[in-house]
Amino acid sequence: MAGFAGRLARCWYSGFLRSPLQVPALGLHVGGPAMQTSQKDFNNAVSQLKLLKEDPGNEVKLKLYALYKQATEGPCNVPKPGMLDFINKTKWDAWNALGSLSKEAARQNYVDLVSKLSASSESPSPEAPAADKKQPESDSLVVTSGDGITTIRLNRPTKKNALTTQMYHDIIAALQAASKDESPITVLTGSGDYFCSGNDLTNFTSLPAGGPEEMARSSAVLLRDFVNCFIDFPKPLVAVVNGPAVGISVTILGLFDVVYATDRATFHTPFSHLGQSPEGCSSYTFPKIMGSSKAAEMLLFGKKLTAQEACAQGLVTEVFPDSTFQKEVWARLKAYSKLPPNAMRISKQIIRDREKEKLHAVNAEESNVLRERWLSDECMNAIASFLSRKSKL
Ligand code: COA
């Protein structure tokens, strides 16, 4: 439903509806045999609309209003309301935008739109959002949209959702797409028993032609770009932490708006063990969130927090029993996704804008420091040790 409304909204705002010839871009008909919609079909659609189980949202209601007026009265023929008569002006604009679309075509479009809305409101509503879109990323990342939520799911459960270089690129692309899509809320979560085990340590094993220096340089650029996407993400971003989280999957949590965790989750940043240093702006967000000494215990000594501890320290918003985690969290998110999206965006903007410059500076500095750390003996030895499975953290 939200997907449909959003597509309509996008077309609406981009002015597509100003020309009736462009109406097919919405999947609606303007000519041909389908034009034979009878007055009876139209009347049926008007009645069917009243039976919808879900409110289709203002954009769609506006579209329906315009098509109804066009179908029953023809092109807009009333004076434009004044600027301050906001609601009537918006309705007038919608009707007027249909231009000279014929009554028959408007009737057909109205019937088509109502039938799509009826079909989508009859679809079952499972715990997780209905998935009406799957983007062609690598199998390790699955992006779906439905019920007003775009879900970016790390999908490498056999490797505890460790992030490969390709996944960093795919997450950047998914966040960029989500920032422009119609879902009011975006979620990051994981498949299987882990949320994410952090950077895939084998990323360091395929050296480019430029050797370790080039590997460190390009990894630092990728890291900076990746974290920038979280800093700049313009609408509510929620982490659904379905299990233990390690490394960068913990540090970026400080950039999320809300973090829900199962009580099975743990939060671990073993940077010193790996000869590395903090990223994801955690050197700034963690002391701010939990105070400097708690942050130092995590970031310097790699103290692993339980979900309850992370919640008590403000990194996690709320912890749920694992048995009801998925059900409770998605139900709550679906309810939140019905809040006015522009209000949520603007509120996030006010909160985030004050910090953005600082966060970008921190991210740049952390990425630069890590570029050096990745070339250090401490780091190379720790990674070699993990890879040779002589020791595990
Ligand atoms: N990088 C590369 N491979 C990883 C990985 C990572 N970050 N995390 C898990 N894996 C792989 C393991 O090598 C293993 O692969 P295999 O089946 O081919 O041997 C598989 O995922 C399952 O992990 P395993 O170690 O067998 O599971 P576990 O439950 O015993 O331990 C972890 C899970 C996450 C505690 C452990 O794998 C680990 O410590 N990983 C490294 C985490 C890390 O240091 N991340 C970087 C932080 S900066």
Automatic annotation (TrEMBL):
- Where does it reside? Mitochondrion; Peroxisome matrix
Q: What class of enzyme is it?
A: isomerase
Catalysed reactions, semicolon-separated: (3E)-nonenoyl-CoA = (2E)-nonenoyl-CoA; (3E)-tetradecenoyl-CoA = (2E)-tetradecenoyl-CoA; a (3E)-enoyl-CoA = a 4-saturated (2E)-enoyl-CoA; (3Z)-octenoyl-CoA = (2E)-octenoyl-CoA
UniProt GO molecular function: delta(3)-delta(2)-enoyl-CoA isomerase activity; fatty-acyl-CoA binding
All residue ranges annotated as the ACB domain in the record? 38-123
**InterPro entries given for it?**
Acyl-CoA-binding_prot_CS, Acyl-CoA-binding_protein, Acyl-CoA-binding_sf, ClpP/crotonase-like_dom_sf, ECH/Chromodomain_protein, Enoyl-CoA_hydra/iso, Enoyl-CoA_hydra_C, FERM/acyl-CoA-bd_prot_sf
Keywords of this entry:
Acetylation, Isomerase, Mitochondrion, Peroxisome, Phosphoprotein, Transit peptide
Compositionally biased spans, kind Low complexity? 118-129
Q: SUPFAM superfamilies, per this entry?
A: Acyl-CoA binding protein, ClpP/crotonase
Residue numbers spanned by region Disordered: 118-142
Q: Which GO terms describe its cellular component?
A: mitochondrion; peroxisomal matrix
Pathway membership, UniProt: Lipid metabolism; fatty acid beta-oxidation
The protein's predominant localisation is mitochondrion
Any Pfam family: ECH_1
What EC identifiers does the entry list? Answer: 5.3.3.8
Q: What does this protein do?
A: Able to isomerize both 3-cis and 3-trans double bonds into the 2-trans form in a range of enoyl-CoA species. Has a preference for 3-trans substrates.
Query: Belongs to which family?
Result: In the C-terminal section; belongs to the enoyl-CoA hydratase/isomerase family.
UniProt name for this protein: Enoyl-CoA delta isomerase 2
Organism expressing this protein natively: Ovis aries
